[in-house]
Amino acid sequence: DEFLKKAQARGTMTAGEQQRLRRSTEKTTGETQSDLSRMPLTRLASFILSMPVDERRQRLDELDKAMQRATDRALGRLEGRLPALGSTSLVLDNSRSSAGSFEKRQRPLAVAIAVSYVAERLASTVHIRWTSEPEHRLLVQPGGQTDLASPLLGALADEPATILIVSDGFDNAPAGAASEVLRVFRTRLDPERQLSLIHFNPVFDAEDYAPRSLCSLVPTLGL
Questions:
Q1: Whether the Cβ atoms of residue 17 and residue 10 lie closer than 8 Å to each other
Q2: Whether the Cβ atoms of residue 18 and residue 41 lie closer than 8 Å to each other
Q3: CA–CA separation, 80 vs 73, rounded Å?
Q4: Which of 35, 42, 80, 192 has its CA at 20 to 30 Å from residue 63's CA atom?
Q5: What pLDDT is attached to residue 100?
């Protein structure tokens, strides 16, 4: 705490150090001083998820606008380098495992939220389907088993141009169901791959030394 205070006085603090000082002050005083206008997109989503749900609900409009501004800042640095997606459906995992690890609490869920905001900027239309439908995406909480097959079937029924899946790659309700849906769709219904299907995985699988794949017929990208 003393180091951060002196660094603040000298004006030499990094953004991360500034955030740690604000968190330290919040714990001591109970006052929220975080500057929502400066946080990167995924870090802001993680910060919002760290709030009690009641506080999130009370500040929902403010937090949603902060996420939209963070999205604009992130995409502004990539202007002209990202393609329009057309109609898009998202399959987002908010099962128990989206709570993340001790070191990166709720990061998988934060990535899912961030992807939803980015997709809304890049796509002509967006349908968002969660494994457990929340009251609002910023009020979402991790819980339950991972049923990716049901929201995936719903996303396919939307008949979009693109489906983006955000999941750690573990599907257990029932196990392997999403993989089988993807396999049948790719081999029987869409062998020419007219539909773009991409799996984003926010978790590094220590067993495979890579992001865990849902299906060999669908590319998996680590975030």
A1: no
A2: no
A3: 14
A4: 80
A5: 86
pTM of this structure: 0.84
Instruction: Give the up-direction half-sphere exposure of residue 189: CA atoms within 13 A in the CB hemisphere.
Output: 11
- Which regions of the chain does DSSP assign to beta strands (E)? 86-92, 123-130, 162-166, 196-201, 220-222
Can you tell me the mean pLDDT for 171-188?
93
C-alpha–C-alpha distance, residues 152 and 181, integer Å: 8
Alpha-carbon distance of 36 to 54, in angstroms, equals 18
Measure the CA–CA gap between 22 and 37, rounded to whole angstroms.
14
Q: Measuring CA to CA, which residue among 58, 71, 61 is closest to residue 116?
A: 71
pLDDT over threshold 80, residue 9 = no
- Distance between CA atoms of residues 116 and 123, nearest Å: 10
Task: Give per-residue burial for 64-94: e unless 16+ CB within 10 Å, then b.
Answer: eebbeebbeebbeeeeeeeeebeebbbbbbb
**pLDDT tens digits for 115-153?**
999 999 999 999 999 999 999 999 999 998 899 999 999
Is the confidence at residue 205, as pLDDT, over 60? yes
> In this structure, how many other beta carbons lie within 10 angstroms of the beta carbon of residue 44?
26
